[in-house]
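Hi Y.,

Following your request, here is the sequence exactly as I used it, all 453 residues.
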Amino acid sequence: MPTTLFQNTRVIDGLAEQPRDNVSLVMTGERITAVGPNLPAPTPDTEVVDLQGKTVVPGLIDTHVHTTMMDEESLPLFLAAGVTSARDVGGNLKKVRRLKSDLNGGHTLGPRLFICGPLLDGADSSDPYGGPLSKALDSIPSVEAVPQKMNEILNAGVDGVKLYFTLPPDTAEAVIRFVDKRVPVTGHLGYTHSLDAIKFGIDGLEHVLISPYNEFCALDMQFGPGASMMDQRFWTKLLKGWEEADLHSKSAQTWFDAMIEHQVNLGTTLDVLWISKYGVEEALRDLDRRYIPPAALARQKALAARIGKRPDWDMYVGFFDSSEGVRALEKHQQVTQMLHEAGGLVVGGTDCGALPYPPPGFALLREVELLAEAIGTMAAIKAVTSVAARYLRKQDDIGTIASGRYADFLVVDGDPLRDVRELRKLTAVYRGGVAHDPQALLARVPHREAAQL
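Below is the corresponding structure, written out as tokens. Let me know if you'd prefer a different format.
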């Protein structure tokens, strides 16, 4: 197998609190085989690469994507932004299995993919109108239906299970008990409160915006059975509830204590409200917009036909104006900070695919920026590398720069610890020992020219 020696680099390995300077690493085939300051001299057939002045970072991991809601031609966007692994948290089981096989087998260019299969609703549908979300849903109408449905999903070889909005507490508990830690179980919760799911043994919560909401909002602002995410009033209430939330209430403290005691992972997806923080005008100038996948643009055009075209038609989520989410996002960052500082687990994810903007790959860079503001840059990088890998139970393969791990790493012409936005200064992305040029990847994916934005 071919061997490459990378010399004279700064390494952020995903584990240590400080980077290491003047480090070398050896890549043999698809794995890293040595990392350290004083490695043996290279053999004559070893390729030597000098990385003086550059930083090596583990490949980033997006723990919350929906790959079947984007074009396969857009999947290289993940690599172009440094995302070498992703977890699909909701899609048609047959489609995500095929896509995982194609990506992990090298037949399709994109990230290493792990899958959860369908979004597990209860008897009620989270998308009764048959929209794009409906194709990712599956129903478990009762506790009695759990064994058959979960055997079907687990036997398909999923890497995790995702509970969804209308799954009620008794069925959620039955699923978690049935899975019995064979794979991680996470949830985008609604009818089931997060404290109940934590008690049942859930491994993760998705969206600080939604899953833990009932533990922070006032009693008269809570939602439960009968609530619908398809109702604009739901989002108005949700944002208002967060704006008024008391993060130091008894209920909130009970939630923090439970998350820490049970080491439940919080998949933040702060980027969902990125536009709220930076404003529509900033988003309209953002050249990342050019990479919104064609499938997402088609959905946005259909939305614009119903509500009227607007300057941000290609980014508008349809439920609320971005300016409404500013104070809610501030609360989400505070929750993230408080959980992290108390010893909880914070993991980065984006919801790209389900949302048109920020586009795949680049969405995680936005997420890291918002995480860095909340928990610091090194912790933010770990949230999308080593902590994310442990959440997926793939820490022996990805998430760190260490001997035996896949050679999934980034070469950055800068120092992300000085400014996390320097993660964008990618000169090379390695996935399984194969080097990719970010600019070449961007040139080949579907995109709009700046003049078209």
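The mean pLDDT is 96.

Thanks again,
Q.
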